[in-house]
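can u do me a favor
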């Protein structure tokens, strides 16, 4: 854990180098091989490469499709991509497993790259997100078992001048609301859990002429539990292009790649409200726009200031079994577990926990996806955590997702909304994110063993 800040700051520099690296040579080679394979076979090639893929009868009439693009997932990446595609004149439908647009998650930390990438997609969207974010001024690393460990910097306000944007923290729900603003309600289809996709054949045998994708969903009515299968029906939609940004549980990823998330650790996190903090430990509990890492014996706590005076906190105990069932019970049992967990911590940390309503505390398993060099085929591709879910040791999740959106838009602007754009997007982003996934994994193990 002693390397946490060094990883955090150094990785941003490596991230910029990674993004600046020219992968066009790699993409050109991959594209040539694809064209050679496609030219020598018929549409059955897709079925041979992926036995889970299916083919259905299609039509060449554009009215046959429900949308130009079907986006799976109304998270940050899906919302940002929706803005970008609508601004380019494409018809978009967003399918979300949750039955409504409602508060979810706690908070996130973002590198300057996140806002830079979002600015490339839409300067207006970047301004909206920045308006609800907190620029981080200070970052620190301290220990409750080693008083000599006290490192950090209070010069992060200089990040905008150096990197183009600040390091920021933001409440997850505030980010979602900022990114949804301006999107028409009619593009959203809540309560739609992806079941599978089916390729529709090309009309004339030309593989540059996409045949589209048939999507099948388990639809749950608003007001029902998201996982209530008894209250669900099966629905379908036809889109020209499928872009899955559903996250680590992506059904498209499972159908394309066939792998599963790898559970790594158990985490507890929440946002302590300003009023509660004032009662327990006083104003300014987390300093002035500060991101803090506190470490103990196999335990780590992170806190971050939020714009309205709230404080985001997370707790991880590395010896917890991530595959064990998450404890259930009443609020008092959760409160007792938290009290036991935080007993050795300083009062300012215990005060944050005491200031948090038990119903706002989230306990979950943190997992990652294996590195995959296959993100798509034909009219289908992955984006964000669906493609490269990584451990939070370096806090790169949102930053890499927005970079995916930016790169995909560049390729669509260059080639149009077609298979060539999807394959070039993959050729550029796959090697970049593979490196970052592995770096996050290395940082995770470094935090445990160093």
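np, heres the sequence
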């Amino acid at each position: 854990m002693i390397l946490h800040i060094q990883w955090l700051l150094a990785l941003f520099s490596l991230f910029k180098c990674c993004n600046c690296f020219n992968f066009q040579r790699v993409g050109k080679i991959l594209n040539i091989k694809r064209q050679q394979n496609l030219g020598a076979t018929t549409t059955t090639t897709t079925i041979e490469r992926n036995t889970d893929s299916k083919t259905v009868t299609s039509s060449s009439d554009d009215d046959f499709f429900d949308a130009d693009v079907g986006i799976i997932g109304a998270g940050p990446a899906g919302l940002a991509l929706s803005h970008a595609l609508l601004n380019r004149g494409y018809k978009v439908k967003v399918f979300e497993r949750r039955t409504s647009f409602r508060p979810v998650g706690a908070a996130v930390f973002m590198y300057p790259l996140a806002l830079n990438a979002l600015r490339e997609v839409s300067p207006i969207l970047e301004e909206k997100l920045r308006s609800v974010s907190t620029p981080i001024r200070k970052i620190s690393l301290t220990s409750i078992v080693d008083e000599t460990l006290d490192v950090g910097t209070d010069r992060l306000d200089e990040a905008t001048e150096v990197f183009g944007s600040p390091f920021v923290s933001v409440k997850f729900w505030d980010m979602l609301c900022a990114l949804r603003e301006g999107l028409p309600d009619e593009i959203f289809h809540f309560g739609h859990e992806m079941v599978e996709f089916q390729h529709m054949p090309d009309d004339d045998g030309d593989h540059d002429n996409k045949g589209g994708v048939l999507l099948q969903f388990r639809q749950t009515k608003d007001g029902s539990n998201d996982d209530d299968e008894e209250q669900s029906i099966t629905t379908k939609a036809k889109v020209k292009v499928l872009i899955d940004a559903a996250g680590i549980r992506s059904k498209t990823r499972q159908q394309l790649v066939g792998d599963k998330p790898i559970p790594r650790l158990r985490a507890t996190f929440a946002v302590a409200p300003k009023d509660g903090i004032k009662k327990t430990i006083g104003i300014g509990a987390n300093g002035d726009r500060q991101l803090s890492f506190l470490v103990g014996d196999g335990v780590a706590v992170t806190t971050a200031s939020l714009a309205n005076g709230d404080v985001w906190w997370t707790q991880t105990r590395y010896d917890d079994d991530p595959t064990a069932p998450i404890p259930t019970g009443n609020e008092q049992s959760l409160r007792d577990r938290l009290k036991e967990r935080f007993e050795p911590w300083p009062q300012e940390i215990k005060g944050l926990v005491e200031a948090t309503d038990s119903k706002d505390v989230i306990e979950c398993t943190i997992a990652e996806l294996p590195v995959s060099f296959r993100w798509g085929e034909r009219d289908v591709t992955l984006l964000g955590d669906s493609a490269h879910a990584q451990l939070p040791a370096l806090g790169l999740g949102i930053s890499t997702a927005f970079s995916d959106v930016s790169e995909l838009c560049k390729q669509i602007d260059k080639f149009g909304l077609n298979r060539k754009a999807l394959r070039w997007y993959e050729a550029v982003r796959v090697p970049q994110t593979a490196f970052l996934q592995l770096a996050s994994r290395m940082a995770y193990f470094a935090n445990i063993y160093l």
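DSSP finds 15 helices and 17 strands in the chain. hope that helps!!
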